[in-house]
Amino acid sequence: MTPFSLYPAFVRISYTTAYAPHTMTLPVLDWNPPSGGHPSGTFLCHDGSQEDAETMIDALVAQLAAVWLPTTNINEAIIYTMAAPVAPAIPQITYEIGVPGTNTNTGWAEAVQLTFTLRTDLFHKMKLVMLDVPSDNDFNKYTSEAAINVEFQQIVDELKADGNGWCGRDRGQPTTFVSMIFDLNDALRERYRLA
Q: Pairing mode, if any, of strands 90-100 and 125-131?
């Protein structure tokens, strides 16, 4: 297998903040096409079960929404598959979400990047990056999950859950919290003409 390929499947979540549209890409273990009661198909989970794709996406989106401001809208998810590690990604399902952020924090958010880093059971890293999120003016790096707010812990728990299929690009299950940090995204600062 090609190291760190998105094969065999991944989800791209699109969202629009007050400043720009963005996407995040999250690998999944595998995807099965729509079947009875599963209009967007199912994902293979780390415990060997199959989870409804919309249910798994919605559960993560609910946790992400608690971090973004109400001016951010989580628009849609597109599920892609790849026939081989070096094959092109083929879009299979578009799932409309339409969920706004719920964070009422008034701190600076423009061009702020929040990065979660976890280690998988195959000893590589998985990252989840959120853009244009309020920083609470806290740019410390947290390396203990116990030290972060419950809203952030819930995102980590959702990524790590045995009954979900989120994975690293190595297809390993995220098992260990490594760090969480707010930072200013220099590319966005230039794009927003803040630099």
A: unpaired
